[in-house]
Amino acid sequence: MNIKTQDFGDPVFKPYVIKEINGVPCAIIGQAFPYTPIANPRYMVADWAFGIQDENMQAMVNEARSKGAQVVVVISHNGMDVDLKMASRVSGIDAIMGGHTHDGMPVATLVSNKGGKTIVTNAGSNGKFLGVLDFEVKEKRVTDFRYKLLPVFSNMLPADKEMDALITKIRAPYESKLNEKLGISEGLLYRRGNFNGTGDQLLVDALMDVQGAEIAFSPGFRWGTTLLPGQAITREWLLDMTATTYSFATVTEMTGETIKTVLEDVCDNLFNPDPYYQQGGDMVRVGGLQYQCNPTAGMGKRIEEMRLNGKLIESGKKYKVAGWAPVAEEARTQGNKQVWEVVEQWLKTQPNGRIKPRQLNAPKITGGLPNPGYVA
């Protein structure tokens, strides 16, 4: 509901619908990812404006209530922290149900605001859980609720026949290419981790090796599936880890000062104490470079002790840095290969097709410890 045209501010999509559920009129409001043109290429949504718009959200809630809605639910792509803050600033929302944070929240959080309380939940990503909210409505308002986070055991659920047939039909021309084995992983390959994951380590290792770079960056994406030791690395898994509409592989000369600026910028997107300045995702994954990070420090002061092969990075010296998924429009016109092409080339050169366990390159955390949520 926060997507509007750049020039006139008109809504691009209908901001909400009102549906009658068990005889109760319920308003369902959509909340798009507010940082879409920052976290992704602006040229792909050039005519659209996004953002956190508390006043507009309040207006939509009030409008839905005036049209008879007795229950108001927001389906959100904000992220849990942003949803919690929005719930404290906007009144009249009964519940905010999100998934952007990717972590399922087993217990709902009640947030107080000037109109009462708002339920905030997050069901996680990849269809792992289903967030279920049951409301008790008396005298045209919510008087009680029950929340459950239900695990989805997909291999135990029968597929919908029509949808299964459609998926099979669409995949058929690409099935053999998707299933082609590019190697066998001897270690666990996963993506999720605040600072790095072995799946991303594989990507940066490949980018540096193939492109002759000293350092590599990989975006802090949180999607992608895990491979167990002994499983095949297929082209489908590689695409599952890399397929965006702007996955160009790049090599850039950066000064030490620029490298620090990049790391500091991403770090502030994650650890700014104000949720409205957090853009989600995990920390950019780094290959080759070692550094220290203090998440509790102020803006521009979180990254320290950047080293390459044991030597401190020099502010004015230039370094060859590989990366992928640039948001700048120029990348698509410069003949850059797609990142999966570069990584596939690397996979096919590994001895006997065996991909050794990745040695995780993660920063040393220097602030906010001990923390029960962090394992060094």
Looking at CATH, the homologous superfamily of the largest domain is 5'-Nucleotidase, C-terminal domain
* Helix/strand/pairing category: alpha/beta
Q: Beta-sheet strand percentage?
A: 25-35%
Which CATH C-level class of the largest domain is it? Alpha Beta
CATH topology of the largest domain: 5'-nucleotidase,  domain 2
Brief characterization of the structure:
With 376 residues, the protein is α/β, with parallel strands linked by helices.
Please characterize this protein's 3D structure:
The chain folds into two domains: 4-154, Purple Acid Phosphatase, chain A, domain 2, CATH 3.60.21.10; 183-365, 5'-Nucleotidase, C-terminal domain (5'-nucleotidase,  domain 2), CATH 3.90.780.10. Helices cover 24% and strands 28% of the residues. It contains nine helices and 21 strands. The strands form six sheets. Strands 2-3-5-6-8-7 form a six-stranded mixed beta sheet, covered by helices on one side. Strands 14-19-12-15 form a four-stranded mixed beta sheet. A four-stranded mixed beta sheet has the order 18-17-16-21, covered by helices on one side. Strand 7 (109-113) and strand 8 form a beta hairpin. The radius of gyration is 23 Å and the shape is globular.
